[in-house]
Amino acid sequence: MVMMNQMMNDDDVRVLAIDPTKSYIVTAPAGSGKTALMIQRILRILAEDEKLEKPDQLVAITFTNAAADELRVRLLTKLDEARKNEKLDEANEYEVKTRELANAVMKRDAKEDWKLLEIPERLKICTIDAFCKEVLTHHAQRTGLGTVPSVADPEGETTEVYREAAKMTLETSGRSEEEGNRINRFLKIYGYNRRLAIDDLSKLLAAREQWRDAVKRVDESTNGDVEFCIANAKRVFAELSKIVDFEKVINIFTENNCLNEVIHFCKQAQEHGSFKTECYKCLEDKNAENLVTDLCEEDKEGLLLGFKQLLFSGDEYRKTRGITVSCGFPKEAEAKKERQNFATRCMECRKCKAYFEGINIEIVEAYSVARKDAKYSTNENDRSTDFKSLLAVVGVLPILLKSLEDQWIARGVLDFTAVADKAVEALGELTDKENRTRHLMVDEFQDSSKRQYQLIKAITRQWKSRNDGRTLFVVGDPMQSIYRFRQAEVELFINACQSKSIGDFEVDDTLTLNKNFRSRKSLVEWYNGAFSHILGDVASPETGAVRYTQAVGVRDDDAETTENVSCRKDVYTLEDKDDKKAMADRSLWHVAQLVKEWTEQHPAADDDAKCAILVRNRNYLGNVLSYLRKEGIPYQAIEIDKMNKRQVIIDLISLTRALCMENDTVAWLSLLRAPWCGLTLAQLEQFTPNENKSESKADNAEDATPADVQRTVWEKIEKLKDSPEFRDTRLRSFYDVMFKSHAAALQASQFTLLVEQTWLELGGPATVEDESDLEGVRQYLNILYKLEQDGHITSNERLVAAVEHLYAPPDQNADAQKVQVMTIHKSKGMEFDTVILPTLDKSAGGRDSTALLKWCWIGNQFVCAAGKVSQEKIEDAKESLYYKALVSLINKRKEENESRRLLYVAATRAKNCLRMVYGYKENQSPNLFATMIEGIETPKEDITEMVKNSQNDEALDVTQDFTDAGKKVARLSKDWELEIDDVAIPEGTIEGADDGDAVDDEHYSVGDKRRIPDWLGKFAAGSPARAIGTVVHAWLERMAKDGTEKLIDDDDKLIRTALRQNKVYREDELNSSEKIVKDALQHVIQEHPEMLRRHDEDYYEYALTSPKDNRFQNKIIDRLWRKGSHWTIVDYKTTNLEGDSEEHLTDKISGAEYDKQVIEYGEIIQKRFNVSSSEVSRYLYFPLMNKLAKIPEDGEITIVDRIEE
How far apart are CA 956 and CA 945, in angstroms? Predict the structure, then answer.
């Protein structure tokens, strides 16, 4: 069948793929339309599988939320178009077939009363994480959890749990003698440095999905750890034996008729050579023909290195002139010809060269060590340091996993890995009848991890055969597997295709799509030529190598295009004197010029074309963005611009650290350097520690004392604030603000508020560059608030980790969206008219396991090594031989192969044009990316002179040295004050942040005008009205969920904090806003308690999806409940529509069309729960006004006192 698939054309393969009775593994290269294929298969299953009782028996799992949303929306759109019988392009065969299937589904939908368009959630299309959480929701009891746990924040609580588990692991009290010995043995290799050991253990937990299953048997017997290490040594030895094969090299020499000569010259080298070694002594009195049997293992290993020493000079094969007397060859003149013949024959022996190129001293040493470790000696002195260090690590791993499990139970949370584990466990307990899934579809299968693979096996565990109607359909592209850092294993896809099975379930066949609907034909032809060379034609599960699949272009080239070349290499070379900065500047300058040319060819008004700049690593993009800004080119950066690199966030972190700890010298000096103080470096030096100086520059020499030398920065500020030297600076005003905050920090109950107020009073908002900076401030304060406990920050590590994941929001301006900047990984699944790949000369950097344990998977074999090999002190640790000789080698090959696939993903995002920019020094070899490009035929332009001769000298210098020379220090003027300006409120309404309510701001203002600082204008633009609406909504939901009919005392602080988080900062506005919120909540508690009671069914913030105006919209009903057969809808409106009469109020409700919105909610509920209009009541509630309006489906709006029950 595989041969048949290769002979079939693409259209026939697609017909096979949507057969709802067959199971397939489908290879779908870039641009092949796999989402469209999945839509057709889903439609056909829904229409034709008569045993499918409910739509959710078909499960479609995707890799990302975005992919799940796209698949769901496109599927619903096809169904909606069929229901409306919208006009169809009859010439498009795909659209015709899809409409036919969609019509069939709508007929069955009516027959089965599925209501797919009214209740889209019945289509189970979700990510694998969401699927696992759903499994736990229904089957938590089967895993021993009892209740459904929440998922811990990946950047916050999860990190804390890992550290707590690591700490628990090292506690010896209450443990068995065996466990205590293991822990002490582990700490010994760390020199009993518990902090460092905890750091490494916690990092290891984050990657446990890769190693946990391999070590799970360590604790099953008394010597389980020893048995594991012996088995590991045997695996290392077996793998290295494939490289270090003495018999193989002897056979190579024999085949080449040079074995006797090699032995002869080895003996000569031993006797006469200038590099005499012991490795040749074993050849004395030995016949060449019997070496394999006569030599012991140690002699064979030594002789192999001797062979390489004889034949190689460094890493290169010896040339003829290199075979000299100094190497031990005969010096007689008549022996010259003999030497030359030998050299020629050796150089012609490619097998010999290939063999020895893979051999080095570390490999042979590791081979020798693994051979001895595999035999194992009960004498500890006979064990290698590799073995003993690995034994120490492996011994604590079961304890570490048990500690983590205890932490999950104690906290009632799980991370995503634990959720997947528990889901697999629960699915394994289900009976065949309980496992209701009939059809499983998996997208992006090439990015599956071993745990996700186990989940697929668990779902299909009891599927007896391919003929019982249940099907498995997995789609992916091994050429696009680029997520090794997320534990993705491309070999899972390769093995599944080769075996035509996943677990015990065999599929009917493997299929391959080859049409490319995305890129124009000339570009597809380039892909075929380039990547058949880059990727090759052999797949290897052991190294992660994949076979290139030839594609067929569908889109014809545009004859009128201005881009005559679909793909071009822009190469520049540098001289020896040029440094890395010069190389980077030239590359990035050229990228900016390419983008500038593209924007001129594609003005915003003319077309919707998009250009993308894609890079391997975010760190490469900082200067790219600087160049674009200098050229005035708007762009949209997707998770690129890290906020912790922004000065405003750096200043906030320094402020936080300074208020936490007075002796944090770096933090206090940073505050003095920040714009609100702006001291020069020369001035700053007077506040630095002076431990090694006999006197302090901060004071006169005659006044210096030992106490002066030991003063903190803060104490020096106190002493110097009024000195003449700093009279013209802002030091005094800085001191006044910090004095108050510094004292408050000692007893602050709301630390985040203190940081926020201090930043405002120092003038923080006056130092920001744009609105994205302000958004970063808001995000930072939210993080700080989450980490705060009893007025203190619970974990500096969590704060650093959380801020590390803050990114500036992308510019939503339409012009900015034309040029997008992102990583290659982020671009997966996207397409752009032009793709520019800069900095291809940059190295990717390795991601090699963890510092504590190194590992790799070779097929199904797990091979590992201790990350630190040490006898006593961790500072004396060295790299493991196992690691250097094998684990690192395998991982390096896998990384290189993934780099090849990464280039494929980047290149295939292009629809029309691809530009690649890279450079290298003339006397140096390019890196892997550049080497791959160099090896293929592509139009190339040397841009070296063009860049060098550029007149845009300013653009070539985007980095700045941290000196005062030629640089202005950012600072506020010395007479800057927190001025209060009268800012009149514009007339009209402000759109609410929660549900689009119109808000009359006058109701919430203090006096006739809001008084806000001029510099705080944008920062406070949220308006108290918006904040009040958001907080009231949140508290009503909370009170209803908790069944709370009274205000909790602690809520006073929480309400106030919530208002601040929603940009209400001034004390007068805080006071008035807090009163309004409390009054609104009291209205509900006292006069409408029915909104807070429990009913037969209760929903809060009830989310639903429904079609409207040819697209699907997400809607949220604030409060929904059922009592008996009657449903009640309540929509909150935090709007002031106060009128003189009820008639005036109802007119305003109609004018704002609030009634239409609630009526629409009612119609959706009727369809969803199959009830009549009389069984649904609709209300609008205005908590700020304490007004309740009943909204009929037809008729007049009425103001009522109570909800009818």
Answer: 14
